Amino acid sequence: MKLDQQELNQQERDTCRTIEVVNSVMKLSTTSTDKSDSNGEELYTPPLNFSMVDNGIYRSGFPDTANFSFLKTLGLRSIVYLCPEPYPDHNVEFLKANRIQLFQFGIEGTKEPFVNIPEETIREALKVVLDVRNHPLLIHCKRGKHRTGCLVGCLRKIQRWCLTSIFDEYQRFAAAKARISDQRFMELFDTSAYKDIPSSPCSCSRR
């Protein structure tokens, strides 16, 4: 369904801030799974739900072998993995070959609403995400929706984003599978321990 200009303008006003991705990165994003195009140039496939969160911080669903060439262009130092399952062997080999450190925070995935989200695990993951020595960094779970969305939402709250914009971002990735329990968790997340973190105010705070 196409959006009219008024709806597009409204979305722009509701968006926290526009993160401009340089042209070289945009050229890497493609849905093709081929290794080269008709001109013989190598093509790159980003993981499902890939996006830039902030400078040096990215998010996505679970990367597969088809995504490895793209991930190499990011120069990653770290990956924050939010699932309890062991990391696949081919992914581990990719990390070793590219000297990428894996931080695993096992959060159980569930389809049930109103589940308990482990706050301490989220806080431990945030320590890694906020440490610039770990950047560039990729956050991912299975689909890049709920667990990743909760962690990024808590990061946004630390950055002083308004709840409306936090929820907008979460819903863009979760879509029809957005969970009230996730949004409730982000709403109640206590950021008082992060007062020294620089703010990144969203557009709502400037109205």
Question: In words, what does this structure look like?
Answer:
With 207 residues, the protein is of the alpha/beta class. The chain contains 8 helices and 5 strands, in the order H-H-E-E-H-E-H-E-H-E-H-H-H. The protein has a 5-stranded mixed β-sheet with strand order 1-2-5-3-4, covered by helices on one side. Helix 5 packs across helix 6 (146-158) and helix 6 (146-158) packs parallel to helix 8. The radius of gyration is 17 Å and the shape is globular. The model is unreliable at 7-34 (pLDDT under 50).
Low-confidence stretches: 7-34
Percent helix, as a range, is: 25-40%
| Count of β-strands | 5
Number of continuous helical runs: 8
- Biggest β-sheet, characterized? 5 strands, mixed
Strand content bin? 5-15%
Structural shape: globular
Terminal CA distance: 29 Å
Summing up helix and strand content along with how strands pair, one would put the structural category as alpha/beta
Strand order of the largest sheet: 1-2-5-3-4
Radius of gyration: 17 Å
N-to-C SSE string, H for helix and E for strand? HHEEHEHEHEHHH
Please state the average pLDDT score. Answer: 81
What are the SSEs and their pairings?
Blueprint: H1 5-14, H2 23-28, E1 51-54, E2 57-60, H3 68-73, E3 78-81, H4 89-97, E4 101-104, H5 119-130, E5 137-140, H6 146-158, H7 163-174, H8 180-188
Parallel strand pairs: 2-5, 3-4, 3-5
Antiparallel strand pairs: 1-2
